[in-house]
Amino acid sequence: MHPRHILPWLSWPLLAVCATPSSSPSPAAKVTPIYQFQGSGTWAENIAIRSTGNLLVTRVDAPELWSVDPIAKTGSLVHRFNNATALMGITEIYPDVFAVAVGNATTAGDPVTGSWAVWTVDTTDTLQGIDIQEVVAIPEAVWPNGLGRIDDAPGVVLVADCVKGVVWKVDLAKRTYAVALEDSTMAQMDVLGINGVHGYNGSVYYTSTALKALFRVPVDGEVRATGPVETVAQGFGVDDFAIAPDGTFYVMTHAGNTILRMGKDGVVDTFAGAADSLEVAGPTAGQVTGDGKTLFVVTCGGCGRDAPDVTVPAGVLAVELDPSI
Ligand SMILES: *[C@@H]1O[C@H](CO)[C@@H](O)[C@H](O)[C@H]1NC(C)=O
Ligand SMILES: *[C@@H]1O[C@H](CO)[C@@H](O)[C@H](O)[C@H]1NC(C)=O
Ligand SMILES: *[C@@H]1O[C@H](CO)[C@@H](O)[C@H](O)[C@H]1NC(C)=O
């Protein structure tokens, strides 16, 4: 999520540093539109995949959770949250139980401290339907952005606060919250700080919009840092990111209109989309299916950053992956 009014984007220089994306794109990945919301100004912010294969999609332009069927290519409203204006990150915490950040912000920014809470979306009971409950308010949170989980801390939601510059941990069972991680690489500068957060292989990985980089920090089961923060890759615009079962990272470049791929060798290349194309129009977040074959991506439709006329409605895309690479 990058609100445009606080972003003095000028250009997207690809710095000559380690693990910058190569300028020659790899053979174009196959991108299939799955669903498009209606109207410009729509903004899909984050995504999670249900065991049924259906997608849960959050919106910032409306306090709404949507369900998208990638086979039928249809979408429907699951729930509209009263007393809030926006949804941010969503992530699966227990099988078929998802955590989502709900509060007040707009697509232009304007986060309201004191408005944020973590809710659960329980889809386990297919007869009763989806059960949605508020779990814990985080009155000190300024702007929860991406949500994540880590295997070593079951039942814990990682919440990236892109203005406060911290990772909150929310224990769903105990209904408690605390700052788990805080580092200068998470801080807001002229633009948002930490954006996406996901646990992987004993570390918390996170992107910083301000620093245009992907970082990691090793943690213990309490989500306490057990070593220094390391820069994994840098030199590209970032929003949230997805980690495939084979350890490949897919980074959404938001206003860059591309998806970057970082293989296990640390080499970053442009995997899908192009700066001058709306094929991948403002990718905000993604998730890879359990079989590693498909990356589902949500977009803000180009977000109208530099050219307000050059946008399309927000949408959901399927990107074909080759798990053998
Ligand atoms: C959040 O927005 C809702 C809907 O506009 C409003 O009713 C509520 O008072 C707001 N909450 C805060 C803390 O400003
Ligand atoms: C709306 O949100 C505010 C701030 O989070 C809270 O104080 C208030 O009780 C909520 N109202 C309702 C009707 O949920
Ligand atoms: C996982 O972490 C271990 C221990 O830190 C490290 O040796 C290994 O390379 C990591 N694997 C991946 C895929 O990052």
From TrEMBL:
Stored SUPFAM superfamilies: Calcium-dependent phosphotriesterase
Gene3D superfamilies: TolB, C-terminal domain
Cleaved signal peptide residues: 1-19
Keyword field: Signal
Keyword Chaperone included in the entry's annotation: no
Name of the protein: SMP-30/Gluconolactonase/LRE-like region domain-containing protein
